[in-house]
Amino acid sequence: AQSVTQLGSHVSVSEGALVLLRCNYSSSVPPYLFWYVQYPNQGLQLLLKYTSAATLVKGINGFEAEFKKSETSFHLTKPSAHMSDAAEYFCAVSAFTGRRALTFGSGTRLQVQP
Amino acid sequence: EAGVAQSPRYKIIEKRQSVAFWCNPISGHATLYWYQQILGQGPKLLIQFQNNGVVDDSQLPKDRFSAERLKGVDSTLKIQPAKLEDSAVYLCASSSQTDTYEQYFGPGTRLTVT
Fold this sequence. Notes:
heterodimer, A: mainly beta, six-stranded mixed beta sheet, globular, B: mainly beta, about 0% helix
């Protein structure tokens, strides 16, 4: 069984500030982990994914995430927030083998203040 | 390449009516997923197809929901009869056999049941 917990349903940062969105997972098998972004009235877009290679993963739009097995975490960061980063962010987990469907967290809405 | 297409984008129906959603995945993608995203929550898998066979429908409410994927390409998701709690965004996603962990999402269909 797999699950994802995203701490903080809403996060607000100032433009230019560090973005940190938290994700903890639970998985009985080695996980693959993902971050997706969703803009209003749009589908989900993949930001980055961890598939058991490097633990520090770089994605699009300047985002990165680090897989920490000991902490069962996969937090998303960006050094400097931009107004265009305002969106809903979802962390998701998939099993390493077998079923590939994603189990999503409940999401974190990022607000960027000017 | 063209993305995942879904129609309609919006649908409003009364409870106890029926409704159908259509999805056209990315050309050549063997795996197709339907997710339900209730407002304020992450997407939840309803059904997963591999070509035209069902891989996982354990979370599909089969008393009212049905889905098919004829010829292993397009897919249709039907709800009959609809309930108020079916109000949600229905997302379709697809993935290829060479990179089964990367799912591409369509824009979704927003269903409102009144």
